[in-house]
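Sync notes, pocket subgroup
Present: LS, DG
LS reminded everyone that the earlier model was apo-only. Rerun requested with guanine included. Inputs:
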Amino acid sequence: MAARILDGKKIAAELRTEIGREVEELAGHNIVPALTMVRVGEDPASIVYMNAKARLCDKVGVRSRIVSLPVDSSESRVKGLLEEVNEDPAVHGAIVQLPLPQHLDPLRILSLLDPAKDVDGFHPLNAGRLAMGTPLFVPATPMGIHVLLERSGVGVEGAHVVVMGRSNIVGKPLANFLSIKRSGLNATVTLCHSASSNLERVVRSGDIVVAAIGRAEFVTGSMVSPGAVVVDVGMNRVADESAERGYRLVGDVKYDEVKEIASAITPVPGGVGPMTVAMLLRNTVQACRALGGL
Ligand code: GUN
């Protein structure tokens, strides 16, 4: 039987309405949540993602600003900008879009953000808090995955969740988040990656499989157990001369094959992607409330 589609687009639209209501309520206190997004260089995918984030900010009434610095900007130039952002009381959330150019160390750059404005949750203090089970900001993609599952009626409590990928943006924070000792979480988590032995066997043992490895259509039908729930975080460009842009976007999961085996699956696009953007805005509203003492 074909899998149920977990509709991230629809659930993200509901979240937008909810966030919009919160923004209206803050307007009653004369507060407009504001997000500053910093990019160094002109990475094409980063430009697309940041524009999508800015559009959603507009839709829900969050003020947003994209600051784009030249690709050869020094660490001290970025530092100067982030210090301004940290000190600006009208800015509640700030993110530095990744990847950064080679000459900039992400750990050093992300450490410059005020943790109270770090709505991506990438500052080492926030990453550490999450690892300790007491998060301030949970990164947007992991939180988006959890909310998507929860609102689709897929509980993670006690389930075996196999997370494929160990990035600081998705895999590691997701594993840390889902295994927190808290109602609605409490998952049994296995984190596997490109160097894992018997990867297929590990993935097949998952009640829920999250593919975040950045390899187009890597997860095939034979890798997932019948009835598993499959979440696809991938967003890979594959050359396609028949497509207008010369490429098409595919996930980390071989969708047509896996949807015949799984009980539920997220599409690409329209699955995790829209949830991620909504969660960033939710974190921004949360930061705004906390900084405003609300
Ligand atoms: N690059 C890919 N995903 C993200 C994200 O969620 N936040 C930032 N800042 N950069 C990214």
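DG: The chain has ten helices and eleven strands.
LS: The longest strand covers residues 34-40.
Action: DG to write up.
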